[in-house]
Amino acid sequence: MAKIAVFDMNRKQVSERELVDEVFNADIKEYLLHDMVRYQLAARRQGTAKAKGRSEVRGGGKKPFRQKGTGNARQGTPNAPNHVGGGVVFGPTPRDYKFKLNRKVKQSALRSALSARYKDACMTVVNALDLEQISTKSFAEVLDRFELKKALIVVDGENTNLELSARNLPFVKVLRAEGVNVYDILKYPNLVMTEAAVDQIEGVLTK
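Above: the chain's sequence. Below: its structure in token form.
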């Protein structure tokens, strides 16, 4: 079974805990990571781009000029795409970019992402992240002790002081355990988790 050191906020090792191999030491399936990132990014797309076709632009009804005798190509309506102000041919229309992934695929991708961080030694476990007050400076000092510049912080529940303290740090994101996802794990090179968050994630991802 995989093991990892547990630190306090002063980076002093306080214990060592075992990790569930099924969650943090699983085979890394890169194709699932790719599928999951595509799934998350597709779900974020608004899909609101719209251009008017020839039936939607204002005007029309009357021929722009008579059929014969002008020397121009015959035209039936000023709304045609070849006219300035006419409709757009095959323009974008509102659409939904989402696609389906099975629940087991999502869970397997999350296991692969967590395992990748553990195997790369880019995962840190702390016993708690309890700040006495909202202070960006204090939290930045905690990160400096761990020599972390860019990190995803995962906590087990609501932690207002921590969330507000990290809000102004540009390369740090705080997530609750129920919101942990593949895209954010891969986006940030370091993963910091509280022990309670590890327990919560293991409980969800263990078959």
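Helices lie at 21-24, 30-44, 103-119, 136-145, 160-165, 182-187, 195-205.
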